[in-house]
Amino acid sequence: MKSPVDILKAVRSFRYAGAGIYNLFRYENNARIHLMACLAVVIAGVFFQISLTEWMLITIQIGLVWAAEAFNTSIEKLADLVSAEYHPVIKVVKDTAAAGVLILAISAVIVGGIIFIPKVLIWF
């Protein structure tokens, strides 16, 4: 009887996903910018001793921004493969994918502001 879960296939999938994460942060400038922002937020979270709920919100925001950046990069790479030359529809596709990242990044900044601004004001 075949196992309901193919462990070797799952391990390969994780390895491929890991390679994707590595490539994202190695080759994509904006992903590295998000990584630096993440490190700054984590340091601030430790410094200000944010609550468990605040950590959960921060973690969700970081995950959403990184996922959006990965999707955006995938869409851009695929669009470049489909048409290496300028095409107005491909431009709209790429711009719209980048807008998704920007929307989530703005949301993350707002959540960060809600969490950290009161703590900074009290600290001063």
Automatic annotation (TrEMBL):
Active-site residues, Swiss-Prot/TrEMBL: 69
GO terms of biological process kind: phospholipid biosynthetic process
Example of a GO cellular component annotation carried by this entry: plasma membrane
UniProt xrefs under Gene3D superfamilies: 1.10.287.3610
Gene Ontology MF term list: ATP binding; kinase activity; metal ion binding
Membrane topology: Multi-pass membrane protein
Cofactor detail note: Mn(2+), Zn(2+), Cd(2+) and Co(2+) support activity to lesser extents.
Residues where a divalent metal cation binds: 28, 76
Subcellular location: Cell membrane
Record-listed substrate binding positions: 69
Keywords assigned: ATP-binding, Cell membrane, Kinase, Lipid biosynthesis, Lipid metabolism, Magnesium, Membrane, Metal-binding, Nucleotide-binding, Phospholipid biosynthesis, Phospholipid metabolism, Transferase, Transmembrane, Transmembrane helix
Needed cofactors: Mg(2+)
Transmembrane segments: 33-50, 96-117
Cited InterPro entries: DAGK, DAGK_sf, UDPK
Major location category of this protein: membrane
Binding site for ATP: 16, 28, 76, 85-87, 94-95
Family, as annotated: Belongs to the bacterial diacylglycerol kinase family.
Name listed for the protein in its UniProt record: Diacylglycerol kinase family protein
The species this protein was found in: Dyadobacter luticola
